[in-house]
Amino acid sequence: MISEQPRAEAVIDLGAVRANVARLRSLVAPAHVMVVVKADGYGHGMLQIATAARAAGATWLGVAVLEEAVRLRVGGDTGRILTWLAVPGEAYDEAVRAGIDVTASSCWQLADIVAATGRVGQVARLQLKVDTGLSRNGAPPDQWPELVQSARTAQDAGQVRLTGVWSHLACADEPGNPSVRAQEAVFRDALAAVEANGMAPGLRHLANSAGALTLRSSHFDLVRCGLASYGLSPIPQVSSAAQLGLRSAMTLRGRLAAVKRVPAGSGVSYGHTHTTPEATTLGLIPLGYADGVPRQVSNRAQVWVTGSRRPLVGSVCMDQCVVDLGDSAASPGDEVVLFGPGDSGEPTAQEWAEAADTISYEIVSRIGCRVVRRYDGGG
Ligand SMILES: *Cc1c(COP(=O)(O)O)cnc(C)c1O
Question: Which residue is catalytic, options 38, 129, 230, 361?
Fold first, then answer.
């Protein structure tokens, strides 16, 4: 008999995504919500998440790179899309043609954008990014006046239209961290410089999920929410997803590929980092680090199987890992849930993040392409 259940899958609850986006909208209104769908929608599937986000009223979608933005358009999205990460010499032609909002963090980037408008014969929708203290992308304050002036010149020449001015927070996940207020102040100065140059800044935006959830003064006209849209808490030390009114959208599950009884003293997996203290039953899970199960969770994480939480034992391998089933009766083919919303007692992506000494962003966004995505609650 051919099984209908795949070996391993990530089930994505699109109803949860819609509910999360609706929740974020009501929290930040009158500010608008941009749902950030970069990196294949944080591993959830970019186009499916985009559709769910739009259905729930996201007026913007955000992605890191140009190819992602163009793929959204080709996939049928007709709304506003912002992209922000580029290297010198990138061809903005397709993005300009597709009416995608592109970001300049520097004069060379603006020059690349303007060059594309010449080739395409269309005005580029431009946003300017200022570095207010993250020290990553964005023009540093000392280069801001020059970038603003160049944008003014390009706008006067009919090459670009300024649609927004923005920046990104470093420590919004630590409510009360003084750097957040300091970044807000630098951002306000940057906005004032744009206005002093005779330009309307368009949409002003600064907040990520954590800012959206914790600090109203960071909302401005628009908030850019990635993680919270997927139902995970960006401030897990302060509030759980449930406390924030969010529901995790991804459940990672598989089916046992083998079940075997082993005696006490059995070394498990590469390097024998675990030895069974007594006779037990081991289950083989067909998911490994190539599928996004971090090797760091070896001997640390738990999974939900046969109605209880059981520990992973031994090293996580590239394609598989091992669960200690104890004396529970399990058979090959039985379902194992690695993480999910936590309803039935299964661990959450946040718990996996803690077991791996990382953040839940990394747990979901690294789920590999071998894991089938299945969508629940579409339409
Ligand atoms: C990824 C990203 C976001 C979303 O951050 P979350 O913490 O997931 O909400 C927002 N803005 C920029 C510039 C990003 O790169």
Answer: 38
